[in-house]
Give the backbone structure.
Amino acid sequence: MKLAVVGGGSTYTPELVDGLGRMRDVLPVDELVLVDPAAERLELVGGLGRRILARLGHPATLTTSTDLAPALEGVDAVLLQLRVGGQAARLEDETWPLECGCVGQETTGAGGLAKALRTVPVVLDIAEQVRAAAPDAWVIDFTNPVGIVTRALLQEGHRAVGLCNVAIGFQRIFAGMLGVEPERVSLGHVGLNHLSWERKVLVDGVDRLPEFLTAGAVEMAEEVDMPIELWRLLGAIPSYYLRYYYFTDQVLAQELDPGHKPRAQEVMEIEAGLIEMYKDPNLTEKPELLEHRGGAFYSEAAAQLIASLEAGTGDVHVVDVRNDGAIPGLPDDAVVEIPARIDRDGAHVLPLDPLAPEMLGLVQGAKAYERLAVRAAMSGDREVALKALLANQLVGEYDVARDLLGALLDGNREQLPRFFPEG
């Protein structure tokens, strides 16, 4: 099996390589190609990846390429983990909305729209090249904002599935707290990418969520700065990203504090340290510092998903996929993040209980925004982009949305050619 990773020069990639190497029985990869335009960085990451595979005794060949075309020859699956504009663009996404009194975040709010507008055209171009070179290959999208990017891919008819590590992260937390093997835990994960809840925590088919909400979840709630009373009110455990919706003013105040360090700045510092480590030819395993980079368990989630797609085993994975009636109250073409049965034909959603009104309202609003975001990214239409900001629940006001759009376009001019056709 041949697997290509677009954005393979990421400092996170050794985590992916290590996971693939350890999961050889699940996903027998023969060839792994890392693709990235940053040649020097790509070679450092690729070198460490080869040493990791050698230490694990994995027979796969790992190659690198700054050109996508040769990487697609005979490929079976393509993992997308690129970041258009790099961490510098992320830092902007996390800071410029603050000037308009809005939350700064890379996947939600105005910053999330900026990332979507930069990313969707690039990903669609890559997907077209995949379709031309290897029409049967799967495109697995881990590139944020996953829900929006996956909608664009599916809307254009690509053989694609979206993937996030939030669900598998929750699974591992619950398994650790309960002292059971992760494979015994399944989740009632429901919602959208970065806007989801856990309505059930099943261990061998028995729901343990009620006991979590009475006692075990108190510490979890404190760790993500949410009151346990909210979780009990909802009867569910919200993902961390719902802080931006449930505690908007509190989050904004934290981000405006002079001592606040944006996550992008933290990641840049971590990446600088990792790059220095990767230069060491004696380093043969992922360094401990990589744990602070983010994306925990993504490698395992990706390997398991691709294995199910290739083998057609019918395993259930939490993925980003067309709704197709799974969540009542949403259009069939809405991309949702829910459990689905995976086989060679892709992801098949499973029927779900309706969302409670307080959840459904948030989800419907977010889906309206995402639909507009995809239209704006593909068309370069400024009016549609403004409507997207108006629909975004973390923006909303017209005057604010208008100012935000101006700042967004000015700050991303080089990467948004569709919005500046005059050049």
